[in-house]
Amino acid sequence: MAKSKLEEINRNIYDIKNKDDYEYKIKKGLTKEIVEEISKQKSDPEWMKELRLKALETYNKLKLPTWGPDISELNMDEIATYVRPKTKLNSSWEDVPEDIKNTFDKLGIPEAEKSSLAGVGAQYDSEVVYHSMKEELLSQGVIYTDMETAVREYPELVKKHFMKCVPVNDHKFVALHGAVWSGGSFVYVPKGVKVDIPLQSYFRLNSPESGQFEHTLIIVDEGASLHFIEGCSAPKYNKVNLHAGCVELYVKKNAYLRYSTIENWSKNMLNLNTKKAIVDEGGQVDWVSGSFGSKISMLYPMSILNGKNAKTEYTGISFAGGGQNLDNGFKVVHNAPNTSSVVNAKSISKNGGKCTYRSLVKITENAKNSKSSVSCESLMLDDFSISDTIPVNDIQTDEVEFSHEAKIGKISDKTIFYLMSRGISEEDAKAMIVRGFAYPISKELPVEYAVEMNNLINLELEGAIG
Prior knowledge:
Number of helices: 11
Number of strands: 25
Low-confidence stretches: 1-11
Structural class: alpha/beta
Shape: globular
């Protein structure tokens, strides 16, 4: 019998481990002295240092979430919150140190840049090590740079927006992020500029017992448009790593932003990320999300529709294997008339993995004539995996159209039997069904990233991720 396609794929490229060789690694723990040292290492302006210290105070006051997955194993005394690799920010790929460059080469980042991207940022541990953008975007006034450079070179623009969409008191791990953030991307698209080719940032965590806290801030001005892609991965270690990044998206009047992300952390990672968008009149933000890997994930992107006729769509998939608890979902707040939201969420669980879809749809009294449609589907590949759906729908006006549909099921034995009767192996039959289930998400991605997502699904099916 021919070798299964699933067996031909392995996770080796994602589990590349470089020697934990860094220029500087802060001592483990979370104290005022550590936060002040990070601020000093980053050469923060005074306002940023004050923000960090205020965030630390808030972190110490807030308690861990009492709902969702148990994250009591997280011990900040065992996490180094800042690791600087042995390199500076480079604008030429050839100047990146060989071991780091080889890692990103194997992950396909430079090749993707050549074939399908208008700009790329690559972060390794706590620092962006490479950044570039095509000249035609520069001539149009588009800004795409690392977050630290943006703080220095565009202080008024950053200060106006930084942690305003996601305030430091949002929850405990946002406060943690505000105190120790490092790296990330800043994008500003001027009025009326259409960025036709995607920009991408890729985040790679290499150092064990450390955290990654990148900050992404994107502003798409009036009438402008952008597709931004984010990827992330990490090798497997036998101790906990932490990811608590933050994404803030501002979509101005009649602007459009598509934000796509493939998260492929290893299964020692706690992924406690926060993402929000504020959408003005006539604007639209679309989210496309694939969540793979990580031991625990708590991730709920959110759109706040503040202007009339604002729109949002969310298309997401998560895949939980044995030992994983992926608590994901989407939140949307309709704050103005004639706003609309469409949510299409899917999850797959196998080998005892747990997927939870947790959502919020809030339609305020001001949001008359708004529309919202929510669909969540769960597919379980065995008898002992778990899938839960926990929606919250807060509808404060009668003048709306709202629908919610949830479906949980297993792979049909009859379907498997039918495919096997056509000469397809049982394993390949299951893979076909799963890929068909995931197709609505993969078709929303550029072809290179759809291929990556399908490969990750294959890896999950054979139990090869992390």
